[in-house]
From TrEMBL:
Lineage per the UniProt record: Archaea, Methanobacteriati, Methanobacteriota, Stenosarchaea group, Halobacteria
Listed Low complexity bias regions: 33-53
Entries under PROSITE patterns matching the protein: EF_HAND_1, VWFA
Record-given protein name: Mg-chelatase subunit ChlD
Listed Acidic residues bias regions: 93-103, 183-197, 236-254
Basic and acidic residues composition bias: residue spans: 168-182
Molecular-function GO term, any one: calcium ion binding
Compositionally biased region (Polar residues): 7-32, 54-65, 255-271, 733-750, 1343-1359, 1408-1421, 1458-1472
Subcellular location: Secreted
Broad class of the protein's primary localization: secreted
Organism: Haloarcula quadrata
Amino acid sequence: MTGTGTGPLQTAGNDISGTSTGNQAVTTAGNEPTQTQPTQTPAATAGNQATGPLSTSWNGSTEPNASAIAELAPRENDSHPYPLVGDNQPTDPDGDGLYEDVNGDGAVNIVDVDALSRHLESTAAGANWSAYDYTGDNRTDVGDIQWLFVATRSTPSNDTDGDGLPDAYERNVTKTDPRVADSDGDAVIDGAEDWDNDTLPAYREYRLGTDPQSNDTDGDGLTDDVESRLQSVDPTDPDTDDDGVQDSAADPDNDSLSIYNETVAGTLSNDPDTDGDGLLDGTEVHQLGTDPLKADTDNDGLPDGEEVRLGTDPLVADSNDNGVSDGEESYTTTATNETLGVTLSLTGNGDIGNGTTIAPQDDPRFNTSRVGNMSASPVVELNSEQEFSSANVTLGYNETGVENESQDLAVFTYDPEAGIFVPLNSTVDATNNTATAETTHFSTFAVFDISNWATTYNATEPVRQTDDDGLRPVDVTLVMDTSGSMSSSVKLRNTAGQRFVAGLLDVDRAAVVDFDSSAYVAQDLTSDFGAANSTLDNLGSGGGTDIGSGLSTANSQFASNSNDSRAQVMILLTDGRGNGGISEAQTAANQNTTVYTVGFDNANRDKLRDIANITDGEFNYVTDRLELPNVFSRIAENTTEINDTDGDGLSDEMEREGVILGGPNGDRVTTDPKSADTDGDGLSDSREIGQYTEVSYSGRTASYYNHLANPRQVDTDGDNLTDAEEVAGWEVQRTTSADQSTEFTNTLYSSAGDGMGHLETISVQSDPTLSDSDSDGVTDAQERRYRLDPHSHDTDNDSISDHREIVKGLDPTIHDFQPPEVTVFTAQFSKPNSWADNRATYSLTFQVDDPSAVQTIVVSHDGETKATPRVRENQYTHLIEYRTGYVQSLEDDLSAATTKIRVTDTHGNARSSPAFTRSTIFVEGAQHSEAVDTNSRVAAQGLGFSSGLATTFGSSIESLQSFAKDPLRAIEAISTLLDSIPGLDSLSNLLSQAPAVFDAMVQSYEDRQDRANPYDQDAKPELHKDFRANYFAGMLWGEVARSVTGSQAASAAKRTQTANTVADRLGGTRVMRAARTYSRAQDRAGEWRARQQMRAISQLSKATTVPRSGARRVLKPARTATDTVRIRHTIRRTDVDMAELDPAQQRRLGTLLAENDPAVARAVRQMDQDEIDALTRVEMDTRTRSDFARAYESGEVDSDELTTALTRYDSLDADGKAEFDEMLARNGDDAADFAGRTDSDTFDAVVSPCGARSAPSLGRAGSLRTDRYHSVATPPSTLAQSGGSCPDLPDDVEDDLQDALVNVDGDLDADSVDDVRRSINELDGDAQDSATNLIESEGTDGVSVTNDATDLSDGSDSVLTDGEVDDLVRAYDTYSDKSYGRDVRDIQDDIDDLDQNDVDGLDDAINRGTSSSGDDISSNMKGLDGEVEVNSDLLDRDDIDANDLEMDKQIREDSSWETDSLQSSDYNSNTDIDSDIDGGPAYEVKNLDYEPFAEFPRAYEETADSLDDLRTKLNTFGASGQDEIVVVVRQDADTAFAPEVQRSLSGQLSGAESLRDLGDQVESNFNGVEVTFKRFNEVETS
């Protein structure tokens, strides 16, 4: 190369541009303005297009065929060449049609040479060979590699000898020879000389503009080297800031130390507190005498600043000489916020008060009117950086409205575990309006009005407590008196006990204790109620009455066979006075057992009342022993039963009235008594509401439900996780020690396994009421996504918070195992002024960085400790200067490491980093690389070889400063030198002597190798050994090469074969691949360290152990190493060829699997190629894709249905997709099933009825590589397309309707969906909710019933008004939940039949049946159900015409009807005939039987009352002239009433035993009246 210097490597980065003499187009990475190369000019016509035609002589062989090209990854743009390196698109930096940036990283350098050489013969290169034909010879070969290599090493023409100094500068300033790099022959090139001993080499002084012959160019008292390191001063200007003060006297950090004095003290001039102890450097130096470089001068555990604040002596470890160091003493310190009126007094080690914060509580949950009503002070949040033993919290309050401050006020703190504000024992100072309480931890505090607190939290205790799974089970022991006096009551006693057992639930248990003169357990606690009843049947009578023995035996039964998870109840029945009982009742109370006492005849009422009171039970005395069964039924209802329609363990009344939840506000929340899971989140209402809890203070009690979640919200805390997902939790796989992490990663790298055996697995749950359960800045949704512990700030226990690890790009599941990083910024060496001065000065600036905490830093020189800088922060820059003996030449000192920095973190991870070295530049480069794991053996071997090689050539190449400036160029030079050996063939002969040479080398250079070795021999012996062996191998190669070549390397570098050899070596050696990446780390102060731990992921994603092509893209979305392992597990267990998926699909699949959903992973493992293709082909939200996958895994959709559902989804527009996303999130598998099984018309009608509808489904769905889908033709006209009005339902109603429709089983078509949407739009708000409920419960019947019901108000001759239709729909909703009526579809069919036949009175009948609410509406609807059934049946008879039929015919009482035997009370004043046939009978319809349910109170009395109502109504019929009366009932007229009913009948019905007797009684009241009873199935036929 004409015009170059004697060395093969020219100094990079000159300031002055040379004259352009050539036509070099390539921009050299890392240099100043591009220079030219006179001897290498590419042909002007070469490679003017990026994708020219394929050459027929491509590399001397046939070009790749079309099938080979088809296998290539797709290009971003067809006008660009195919990627050669990964997915990176090559670029053309200068726009000449040639793609010099081969690897697409934005720079042109040696890495591109390596890339082209490795991929020269690849299909991708051959397919676009003209993009790389730099020489213009119409072929791409090694000549183009050589051209690119030389182009990346452009040399400035104004530095003839390449010593880093321009020729003019050498002639005019340094007076050196511009033609010779080392003018004085001292083995140091001119640019590296330091003539003025200021540690700045000449080329550095040239750049700075300082005088290379004077160590203080501007004469301000600061040497040039000092000023060059400081940003605030200029070495060429004595007063940089022109303030009239020379730089040496300036004090830029205002710490009372001038810059000069800072250099003397070793402190920083830009930091007023160098050691971070809270004291100014000047104060420490001039006043206190403490060490400004050491935060704790006396090593007592207290920083100097804290000691000054506490009044202890920072120079004496035990200031009061009591044998306890100052750091271990306990101090009381304070903190105050006058604005908030808060004062803290804290006790503990050190100045705790100084690290305490007092702030307003800004959590919205605490800033509500309810909290404001309770509080008499600001609500504040307290935090402390340090632990403390105790603290007194004093809060100022506003006394307005408080009558008695000392009794009414107290300090409260919010306890998240209790879920409520809890009171602290407080002292109120009414004079100063403050309240004080002691606490051992900080959270949220306020002064509350105790009464308002108790009023706010004022929940109603449930009839029966619930546990997490619903009702709290009850254990009942029936303590039955079997004494002789009970002989006449045995049957009643036993029946009464059985009545109680009948009220128990499946989760309950019953026991029986038989007592007379003694007691025994006749039946242990059992859920076999048949066995309990049998035991009761067998109880006899005889003996005395020992009540105490009976209770004691029952107590023992509970103690042995029950526990606190079950409520314990005794029922004591006795007719005698008996012995004992009081002390046994006290024992029962101590066991939390409640005793209900029942006495009759001669029972001791006072004793039984006392027993009940002691145990918080209830005393019952029965005057009529016949009432015993009823009393037991009532007790059963009170103790074991609740009116619970939905079976969720909460009474209907409780759900309607609402419960007071815990939390800051004490909110009242109502739930749906007809739905066990009001919000449909998969958790029952009772589980979400939680346990009833009471807290008492100062005579007042707060009561609330310590809720798990809000039962009306699917996602209580709004963190995008459903409450059910948070409760279900997830598994976390992690390492919790550095050793575990090392074993895990070593296993991964060795391909010996997946490393899972080295991971701990724990199960975790998050709090559904908090979006960030542990308040660590990582939401619960993120914690689930990353598979972290939501109740720990630091999942892997490495003292680096999860939040910080995520932000830094580290792995929060893998304990920190990487040693701290050391980045050397400047490493300068100063020779003494004369050989007589046997000392040299070393100046070192370096940065230590570790994400956990650095524990120690030791700077050593030749094994001797020179400095131990104070550890300040996780990342901090240190300036160290020291002097040492000058016993070696500059060449020897710089050719191998003489100074090391050893850094250890808190986990024992240690790194020894060489500071002064030429041979360690490769180590430094690799450590700064994102792609190289320096902890691998391959890296240790390669770095050792490179370092040894560089040591051999160090003094021949350039100074240490040149290496530090451009390490990549140094690497290139070494590689070039090796491969430019003319006598390369003879090298093998010389190497045959390697053993002898090697032994001699080891003896001579062992110390150098040890200093250069970055691996700690104790911590990493294998890596240390690998580096050592290869270090000497590198030195051997270097010595052999140097002995052969001399100075011929530079000219040989141009030859094609030599360049090819260089490229081969670069491409084939992992060492060079590691070193070359240093070009991407030009800024040493960057954030490279943040990615160190994430290398486990990047390394694994590049591993060859994933057998299928394309899998690496799937692994890319992994967030943690354990993510990567899980994803790899999944894709390796599929039958899917990842290469068959396009890159976007691969990334989507990876993103899907990175969500860490086990069900999704199972689904992917089960899918075939077509199914995976369909799942990943369509662009959609990851959660939506997960829902589809889960539906497949659960079996809700099969393969065809999944493909159909995805096809239909793909056909939707953006709004439709958003709508379906929400619908899928709410309904999960059901929505996916709906999309897969329904036809396109219906799908569109449900999902997007009023918006832009889907395009023809097959048009876009054709991208799916399967024909396994149902018909998805273009939808016909619908609401939005037919021109009809499109109803705009409220959002909540629309959501409810969609949710109901997707869950419909059976046929559903678009027309009926459109109709029902219109129908619902016509209803009022409550009726709209009822309609959607009806569709949800009744399916297609619900749809048709809603449509048919609203039709009743359509048209001028409509039978109902709109409001009456609303009532009917609401009534249907209520009635559909009942078990005793017909299906609402059957009822509506009968109504439609009657309407179509214009039967009179239908509207009145409907209104009477639907106009009530609650239980009444169910009763009335039951009547309407029977009426329309009977009237419809009558219409079906041939002998009855619709015109002759009238429903709901009204009858009014006439006073003339009264006789001696029938008074006004025997008639109904205003009644109706359910069905009146003109000229025929009058029908009374009773849609019931008269068999009462004995379990509810007054059942028999109510039945008797109902029968009497029927009597009076039939009397009214008879008196009004109806001589033929038909009563339609559900039972046979001759069936006998229950004895209890018969006893309850009175008046005219006294003695009646059946309905037939009732009819006879009516007939006897009127002459010629006939009463007939029919069953419902008999109406149509007679």
